[in-house]
Specification:
With 128 residues, the protein is an alpha+beta fold. The protein contains four helices and four strands, in the order αβααβββα.
Length: 128
């Protein structure tokens, strides 16, 4: 019995340590991510993956808003709120705290992507 009580206390203690981090109460965490909606036959998505994909996680932008890829499908269940439906691929949605901050629809070339992404990232509140 005593062993079970100690185990319960340890689990509760761990939960108390993890809860502030998981709920975003720690000011050092940034909940932003860049969600890329794509589909397999999209030539613009493939071009983005060739030109930007390999370097994105290594960039300041990629560290500020890590990439999450989602295959666009009808009646998708998302864990964040979109301002409006995604209708084209690629669409890049900047998400923070479960809500869309803004988006980029389409991909033309690397120069325009980085420029537009920079403007989009400025909409995030400053990191604490």
């Amino acid at each position: 019995m005593q062993r079970r009580t100690v185990l319960k206390a340890a689990i509760v203690g761990l939960a108390l340590l993890v809860a502030p981090v998981a709920s975003g109460l720690c000011g050092t965490l940034r909940a932003a991510e860049l969600v890329m909606f794509e589909h397999a036959g999209c030539p613009w998505c493939q071009m983005w993956h060739r030109e930007i994909g390999p370097i994105y996680p290594k960039t300041d932008e990629g560290k500020q808003a890590p990439l999450r890829r989602i295959t666009l499908a009808p009646a998708m269940k998302l864990d964040f709120v979109l301002r409006e439906p995604v209708v084209a691929t690629p669409t890049f949605v900047l998400v923070e705290n479960g809500k869309e901050v803004g988006r980029l629809t389409g991909y033309r070339d690397d120069e325009s992507f980085w420029g537009l992404l920079g403007v989009l990232l400025k909409q995030l509140p400053p990191a604490s």
